[in-house]
Design a protein that fits this description.
The complex is a heterodimer of chains A (323) and B (203).
Chain A lengths: L9 H25 L4 H17 L1 E3 L5 E3 L3 H8 L1 H18 L8 H26 L2 H30 L5 H33 L13 H26 L4 H9 L5 H7 L13 H29 L16
Chain B lengths: L14 H4 L2 H17 L5 H18 L3 H19 L8 H25 L2 H10 L4 H29 L7 H32 L4
Classes of the chains: A mainly alpha (323), B mainly alpha (203).
Chain lengths: 323, 203
């Protein structure tokens, strides 16, 4: 998802850099006011930790492998403002030392992976925590939040490429969102397993002071989460629906033999934002997105149930009789 | 063990290495801005830029094989995004343009990071107004990155000496507990570093 130099035009680079600068400056100010000095070395070490964790590959189906983004992991472990600093630091070092991600595209990369990623992940996590309690609830929330933050960062990345006129939105959006809806599952699984492993060995490091929710708050949380999902889909679906059928086939297989025919096949001019999508197209996209979100929720709750059996009562306040 | 895969040649002593870091940072920015902003209808410009970078590489005495290997390593990442550009009118032209531009920019940054020690780069970043707290965090990250890579290798070695083969499910669990353990050790190390820093009069 690291955008190299040469892919963004001036307006996109400047706009994203402005947002990133504001976000990072706010987080730094918040950190220097509210974080104790003791935590400063931890942020540096956490950035090195995320860098190293991103280098570890996890196996994905058919011999390919993906790697962790870590935005939600950082946000859940360290809190949102520290996570913004940690992820920005990782991206700055990757751009300056490893040439991974461009220098002029640094603003966009920081925006996608260090601002949108952690904040979206943390927001979904906090919302979900209202509805899902205890150790089990924490793992479900972490899983769903990491999937959402990965997909959100990818959609923003596609949006920036399209806004620059480098890549047509009709090609960038399905490719980026589709690929990251799949790798997001890996991200969700590994983040849940990491949090579960830290909870087992060092529960003190996960001192999130989220108060226990009442039944009413739980249903409010569920409604908010479903509204969020539906809103996201309604926002995204009209754009996706302009995808021509032939193009979809080519884009999904990425067949190189089709490359020469791909150009003329697309009759719409560059950066055409008309929405000629038929009713069935947008319905299909909404259904696909809903199926994705529901699948993530189901998979996360199954995995969380495997990791935290129902009869286990290790956080004492989890016992509903005492609430 | 020495992990110098990031900036292996940054401590050589060539005329380019001896230049002040600020000069190199500024000229890198200039080259990248020029390459990105120049329209692709002027192919001579990109040839000249490539020639200039080749001259800089020769003067800096960094082996061309190292730079070539690094480019081959990073090019697929750019290619993955660039392929999406093909699916539009005039796609091949845009594809070639962004690939040329991003390759030249990659070359420039690889030259920068291998002719300038990171601490010099940080010092000049601090001088142009990057907040001190961010510089401290960047410096700490660079200092302990290699320590954590060592730690990861120790954990991996310990795991490999105890498990002969692992099933698919077990592999995920092992990877997760490795990452979790790495975080636990990072926080413990951060506590010790903080104690050492305050003992030496930090803040």
């Amino acid at each position: 998802m690291h955008i190299p130099d040469g892919f963004l035009d001036a307006k996109t680079a400047i706009a994203t850099a402005t947002f990133s600068f504001a976000g990072l400056a706010t987080s730094l100010r918040h950190a220097s006011r509210h974080l104790p000095g003791r935590k400063i070395p931890l942020i540096g070490l956490a950035a090195a930790f995320i860098f190293v964790a991103q280098m570890l590959n996890f196996p994905v189906a058919s011999g390919t492998s993906g790697h962790l983004l870590g935005a939600t992991l950082a946000a859940v472990l360290l809190g949102p403002s520290a996570a913004v600093i940690v992820m920005s630091t990782v991206l700055i070092v990757q751009a300056l030392l490893f040439a991974d991600g461009g220098i002029l595209a640094l603003g966009a990369n920081v925006f996608n992976m260090a601002i949108v990623g952690p904040l979206c992940g943390y927001g979904v996590y906090r919302l979900m925590r209202v509805a899902f309690r205890g150790e089990y609830g924490r793992l479900v929330s972490v899983g769903v939040a990491s999937w959402f933050s990965t997909v959100a960062a990818a959609i923003f990345c596609a949006g920036e490429l399209a806004w620059s006129g480098t890549v047509a939105w009709s090609a960038a959006f399905p490719a980026m969102a589709g690929v990251h809806m799949a790798t997001g599952l890996g991200e969700a699984t590994i983040t849940m397993l990491v949090i579960a492993s830290i909870a087992r060995t060092r529960p003190g490091l996960l001192n999130d002071k989220i108060p226990q929710a009442t039944g009413r708050e739980r249903s409010t949380g569920l409604v908010l989460v479903s509204l969020l999902i539906i809103g996201l889909l309604l926002l995204v679906a009209p754009h996706a629906s302009q995808l021509p059928d032939g193009l979809e086939k080519v884009a999904s297989s990425l067949g190189f033999e089709h490359r020469s025919t791909a150009g003329p096949m697309v009759s719409t001019p560059l950066r055409d934002y008309r929405m000629p999508g038929t009713e069935s197209d947008s319905t299909a996209t909404i259904i696909a997105g809903l199926v994705g979100a529901v699948a993530v929720l189901a998979l996360s709750s199954i995995l969380a149930r495997v990791l935290v059996p129902r009869d286990r009562t290790f956080p004492p306040q989890q016992n509903p009789g005492k609430v | 063990m020495r992990h110098d895969f990031l900036d292996r040649y940054s401590r050589l002593s060539s005329p380019i290495h001896r230049l002040p870091a600020a000069v190199k940072l500024l000229s890198t920015l200039c080259i990248i801005v020029a390459v990105v902003a120049m329209p692709f209808t002027e192919p001579w410009f990109f040839a000249v830029a490539f020639g200039l970078l080749l001259v800089l590489m020769a003067v800096s005495a960094i082996p061309w094989t190292f730079i070539f290997r690094r480019l081959v390593l990073l090019e697929p990442l750019a290619l993955g995004i660039a392929v999406m550009a093909l699916f539009q009118t005039n796609g091949t032209m845009i594809f070639l343009a962004i690939l040329t531009k991003s390759t030249l920019c990659l070359f420039t940054v690889i030259l920068l990071s291998n002719t300038t020690p990171f601490e010099d780069l940080l010092r000049s970043l601090g001088r142009i107004g990057v907040p001190r707290i961010l510089i401290t965090i960047l410096a700490l990250m660079y200092r302990y990155l290699f320590v954590l890579i060592d730690e990861r290798e120790r954990l991996t070695r310990a795991r490999m000496s105890r498990t002969f083969t692992a099933s698919r499910v077990r592999r995920w669990q092992l990877l997760a507990s490795l990452i979790g353990q790495l975080f636990v050790r990072s926080t413990e190390r951060a506590e010790r570093i903080y104690a050492a820093m305050t003992a030496r009069g930090w803040k």
